[in-house]
Design a protein that fits this description.
5-stranded parallel β-sheet; 188 residues; 8 helices; Rossmann fold; 5 strands; alpha/beta
């Protein structure tokens, strides 16, 4: 199964993505992990990414796309994969489509964890206080969630139009969310 997993910061996306990938027997691939691996291994792409990160800039799509393309060629991705944090732009959607098409594949499902923004903000503010993150104020967190919504709305619409988007209520206990997720994604 080839899955894209989406959800705003604080939605529990990482937790649920890892559980789903494990259940499906496919690798959970986050762009953050790909970046860290390439930087740690000193690959050419890692060196390019590091230059942008050191300058406090976003890693450009060309580098991100190349890293994802390379990662999807690894043997563990043959039966499928779960992408977490990619694609983030409509351009990246087109690039992912081209990568999959060239390998004779397509996405099976795009999962969007939906959440109550006020509850997520409260959760993130509490976590920031517990971890001493003084820069994660309520205003900053709300803006981050707003930007996420603006950036992902076109992607959500694209995948909805294709009929491969499933939305899962991400509120409640971890086990409850997992149960809802498995009810719509996992085919036993």
């Amino acid at each position: 199964m080839r899955v894209v997993f989406m959800g705003p910061p604080g939605a529990g996306k990482g937790t649920q993505a890892a559980v789903l990938a494990s259940r499906l027997g496919i690798p959970h691939i986050s762009t953050g992990d790909i970046f860290r691996a390439n930087v740690a291994e000193g690959t050419e792409l890692g060196k390019q990414a590091q230059q942008f990160m050191d300058a406090g800039e976003y890693v450009p799509d060309s580098v991100t796309n190349a890293m994802v393309r390379d990662r999807l060629t690894h043997d563990d991705c043959r039966p499928g994969f779960l992408l977490d944090g990619y694609p983030r732009t409509v351009e990246q959607v087109a690039e992912l489509d081209a990568m999959l098409r060239s390998a004779g594949h397509a996405l099976d499902v795009v999962v969007e964890l939906t959440v109550d923004i006020d509850e997520v903000v409260a959760r993130l503010v509490k976590r920031a206080q517990e971890q001493g993150r003084t820069d994660d104020t309520e205003d900053v967190l709300r803006r981050r969630l707003e930007v996420y919504g603006e950036q992902t709305a076109p992607l959500i619409d694209t995948y909805f139009q294709r009929g491969i988007l499933v939305q899962v209520d991400g509120m409640g206990l971890i086990e409850e969310v997992t149960e809802r997720l498995f009810a719509v994604v996992v085919v036993d």
